[in-house]
C-alpha cells in the first residue's frame, strides 16, 4: 500500500495567490520525498481542475464530473480565491515551463523554477 503524505494535499490545497509563502514552504518539504517532476505534474492537474471549475464546466469534463460533491465544493472554494484570469496566467506559466523542460531549455533546475513561480515572481 502506498499512501501520500498529508502535506501533499495540503500543498495542492494551498495553491492560491495569497498563500504563496505557505505553498512554497510545503513544496520545499515535499521535495525531500518527491521528484520535482512528480510535483510539477500534480500542480498542472490541480490548476487545470481549478480552471474547469472557475469556468463552470465541471459537469463537461470527465475528470471533474466524476468527483464527489465534497471534492467539488473544496475545489470551488479554492478556485474562488483566484482573481479572474490569474489561473489561466499561472497555467500558461506552467505550460511554458513544461515546453522548456522537455526541450532542454529550462534556465534552471525544475525545483527552482517552480519555487520562483509559486512565489509569484514570474
Short description:
By secondary structure, this protein is mainly alpha-helical. It has helices at 6-14, 20-30, 36-54, 62-65, 69-80, 86-103, 110-118. The protein contains 7 helices and no strands.
Layout of helices and strands, plus pairs?
Elements: H1 6-14, H2 20-30, H3 36-54, H4 62-65, H5 69-80, H6 86-103, H7 110-118
Overall description:
- This protein is mainly alpha-helical.
- Helices cover 67% and strands 0% of the residues.
- It has helices spanning 6-14, 20-30, 36-54, 62-65, 69-80, 86-103, 110-118.
- Helix 1 packs antiparallel against helix 2 (20-30), helix 3 packs across helix 5 (69-80) and helix 3 (36-54) packs antiparallel against helix 6.
- The chain is globular and about 40 Å long.
- The model has no long low-confidence stretch (mean pLDDT 92).
Amino acid at each position: 500500500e502506498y499512501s501520500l503524505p498529508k502535506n501533499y494535499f495540503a500543498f495542492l490545497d494551498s495553491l492560491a495567490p495569497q498563500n504563496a509563502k505557505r505553498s512554497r514552504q510545503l513544496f520545499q518539504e515535499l521535495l525531500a520525498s518527491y521528484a520535482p517532476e512528480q510535483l510539477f505534474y500534480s500542480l498542472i492537474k490541480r490548476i487545470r481542475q481549478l480552471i474547469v471549475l472557475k469556468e463552470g464546466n465541471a459537469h463537461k469534463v470527465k475528470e471533474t464530473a466524476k468527483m464527489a460533491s465534497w471534492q467539488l465544493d473544496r475545489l470551488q472554494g479554492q478556485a474562488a480565491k483566484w482573481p479572474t484570469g490569474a489561473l489561466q496566467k499561472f497555467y500558461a506559466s506552467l505550460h511554458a515551463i513544461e515546453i522548456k523542460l522537455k526541450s532542454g531549455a529550462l534556465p534552471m533546475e525544475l525545483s527552482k523554477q517552480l519555487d520562483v513561480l509559486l512565489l509569484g515572481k514570474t
